[in-house]
Specification:
Aspartate Aminotransferase, domain 1, seven-stranded mixed beta sheet
Length: about 350
């Protein structure tokens, strides 16, 4: 079930709380360059300008950035390019890194974070012999944001530390991001532009890291894997205007998330950990039945049992506007009341 993702929960007529992609339409300063790029589709994509823009956005030279067809493609490059012998994946988290490593023939050791600890990273649990460690920050599906110092402490000579920051831009100011850190050995940061900007269908992400590791990843990436429209989007999303807008969106999101968490808690539904991103994780009795009843009443949420370390009573809920959250919590309360009778 590692290849199961939230889009499989969605169907026509359902309110989508299963996919963690912002649903508002992208702004004109983003859609304009994408539309204009369609005039250049007869030419092969040239990633140089967009790569330079993304690298500069994080204070890096272009040699330290690689654009990919979404963050998911970046994970498929890790095994073939870097060939870890003892890779460790910290769970629960996005399952694609483990799935990609296993597919490439690299047996994975799992480190499971605990509910009792609020799904907080504990560096002491990471085996010393691990030559690759993959961790999310903030982590999907828990929405927990780990301190940058704790994640940075995972790095060491002889180890590649991969930090999945696909949701980093959902945090106002990105205080725990390592995207700009160039001093940590073996650090690769993987980012996505699909979440905040609603570009999941365009497929655009990138990897930041030391030039020698980026070169190895690039050697294994397909030719022209990032389309011309996606490159136009990447360049636009790296602009100062984009960064400022991104932070405004993240600030509004924090308010919407606080509203959802408060509504859930009033309904007697405890939220796991300290959520910091565009989704929350909850545990409810009879989760599989609750999820089915929610679908009957018009809401799609993400099942939890496909994430290592979780089970069927866990549900991930995307943060939407307050009216949508209120409507959802009212239905959830009704479902839970009936489920306990």
């Amino acid at each position: 079930m590692l290849r199961f993702h939230g889009d499989a929960e969605v169907a026509p007529g359902l309110v989508d709380l299963a996919v963690n992609v912002r649903q508002e339409a992208p702004p004109a300063w983003l859609t304009g360059p994408i539309a204009a790029s369609l005039a250049d589709l007869a030419r092969y994509p040239d990633p140089s300008s967009a790569t330079a823009a993304i690298a500069a956005r994080h204070g890096r030279p272009p040699s330290e950035a690689l654009l990919t067809a979404g963050a998911a493609q970046a994970f498929t490059l890790l095994g073939p390019a870097l060939r870890p012998v003892r890779p460790v994946v910290v769970h629960p988290q996005f399952t694609e890194p483990e799935a990609a490593l296993v597919t490439a023939g690299h047996p994975v050791t799992r480190v499971l974070l605990s509910e009792e600890d609020g799904f907080v990273l504990k560096n002491a649990d990471i085996p010393d012999e691990a030559d690759m460690v993959v961790v999310g920050n903030p982590t999907n599906p828990t929405s927990v944001l780990h301190p940058a110092a704790d994640v940075a402490a995972l790095t060491r000579d002889g180890r590649i530390t991969v930090v999945d920051e696909a949701f980093a831009d959902t945090i106002p100011g990105e205080p725990e991001s390592l995207a700009g850190r160039r001093d940590l050995p073996g650090l690769l940061v993987i980012r996505s532009l699909t979440k905040t900007w609603g570009l999941a269908g365009l497929r655009i992400g990138y990897v930041l890291g030391p030039p020698e590791l980026i070169d190895r990843l690039r050697e294994h990436a397909p030719l022209w894997s990032v389309s011309t429209p996606a490159l136009a989007a990447a360049a636009a999303c790296a602009s100062p205007l984009a960064v400022d807008t991104e932070r405004e969106i993240a600030t509004r999101l924090a308010g919407d998330r606080a509203h959802l968490v408060a509504a859930l808690e009033r309904a007697g539904v405890a939220v796991a950990g300290r959520p910091a991103s565009s989704f929350v994780l909850v545990r409810v009795p009879g989760g599989e039945r609750v999820r089915a009843l929610l679908r009957e009443r018009g809401f799609a949420v993400r099942r939890g049992e496909t994430f290592p370390g979780l089970g069927p009573d866990w549900l991930r809920i995307a943060v939407r506007d307050t009216a949508t959250s209120d409507a959802f919590v009212a239905v959830l309360s009704n479902v839970l009341g009936g489920a306990t009778c």
